[in-house]
Amino acid sequence: MYKLIVFMLLIVFVMVLHALQADEEIALQALFQGKHAVNRAAHAAAQQVDKSKLKEGIVSIDPAAAAREAQLYFQRNLRLDGSNEPLPGSFWRTRADILELKVLNEDLTYPYTYTNSAYNYSVTLDKPGVVFIVRLVYPRTYSVLGPITWEIKGAAELYY
Prior knowledge:
This protein has helices spanning about 1-45, 50-55, 65-80; strands spanning about 95-105, 110-115, 120-125, 130-135, 150-155. The protein is of the alpha+beta class and about 160 residues long. The chain has one domain (about 1-155). The strands form two sheets. It has a three-stranded antiparallel sheet with strand order 1-4-5, with helices on one face. A two-stranded antiparallel sheet has the order 2-3. Strand 2 and strand 3 form a beta hairpin. The longest helix is centred in the N-terminal third of the chain and has 45 residues, at about 1-45. It is elongated. It starts with a helix and ends with a strand.
């Protein structure tokens, strides 16, 4: 009889370990998905050339167009609506928060080191660029892992 009880406890233990491993693996894939979305959004934002300044020979990023494109790319890559809430059928369950969207333009001296101590982020840009920081909450599959929240950071430069 005691062997049956030990066997049942062993099965429960193995199932919990399997759930933990599966949840960690899914969390890692979700982090990669979020990081790719942030990088793509930053890159799209950094390519929004200010055409009025370009006519004068100044290479600059249009901040309004950059914000619009970053938001659009981020939402499309993570399947979010206009207010960054997950669409039906999306993997995500909570709102994605855009913490920082900073356009670093021609008014700075390059190479320029952008530092944000609030989010523990530092990046050196050689040309005008964009810094994009978001917060994502991992929708746990099982309740084995504790809550996970990421502050995902990305930056991109204007290519010319």
